[in-house]
Amino acid sequence: MGHLSKAAAGLTLATALLGASAASQATIVQFQTVMGDFEVNLYDETTPETVANFLAYVEAGAYSDSFMHRSVPGFIVQGGGFSFDQEEDKFSVIEANDPVQNEPLLSNQRGTIAVAKTNAGPSTGTNQWFFNLDDNSGNLDSQNGGFTVFGEVTGNGMAIIDAIAELRTEDFSASSAAFAEFPLRNFTDEDLANQTTITEDHIVLVQNIVVLDAAVDTAADLDPMPTTRDDNEPDNGGNNGGSGGGGGGSVSWLMLLGLLGAGIARRVSRQR
């Protein structure tokens, strides 16, 4: 099945399930990627506002043909902010809804998914999310009001995410601060020297995110760790997780002009 057909089928499934169980929302979703498919169990009872926000983008098909745009080995892999038009070979910003209320109740442990946000304040998350590759609680549970964890990867899903984290990254920050640590597939030193245009063959495409199980009790056997945040202590500055240039679809269209049409390879410089 082609990417667009697969996305359309997934969206139909997601819409049907959400319509059948609107009150419960969905608790298990599947990420369909070019690196493999994996499941994420959402904490809809613990972080209801955040899960509802995420599912609104899923139901709208906003994540169809999106891609991972940031990878920091041993830290996070981030996506949800940008999509790729395969017919036009163009990148675009995913339109963001209103920010969601911060719900920093759970800890940023390895294998969890959390909301990316800007440095402007705790409740600035919109469409972007990231997967924690390690125990990031010492930083992300406290920084900027704490990053909201709203689900966890199940099964062998982390093997796929770890494989994404092992890909080479390049620095495209001359075009956008969000692309300073951009993961690439099938991209060699020769491609870099030849300024090869980045296509769908190089990006970590998320073909779609679909709802698999809309039952309310799918997280009953999970035991997420509570946040380590101490409200009496100041925010931990540390590594900025999903903040800053990667947060909330905040990259302007002017920054993306260099990416559209010609691709991003002409502005690449080797990451040191």
TrEMBL record:
Residues 221-245 are annotated as: Disordered. Belongs to the cyclophilin-type PPIase family. Keywords: Isomerase, Rotamase, Signal. Its EC number is 5.2.1.8. It is an enzyme of class 5 (isomerase). This is Peptidyl-prolyl cis-trans isomerase. One of its GO terms (molecular function) is peptidyl-prolyl cis-trans isomerase activity. It holds the Pfam family Pro_isomerase. It catalyses: [protein]-peptidylproline (omega=180) = [protein]-peptidylproline (omega=0). Residues 35-194 form the PPIase cyclophilin-type domain. PPIases accelerate the folding of proteins. It catalyzes the cis-trans isomerization of proline imidic peptide bonds in oligopeptides. Residues 1-26 form the signal peptide. Gene3D superfamilies: Cyclophilin-like (2.40.100.10).
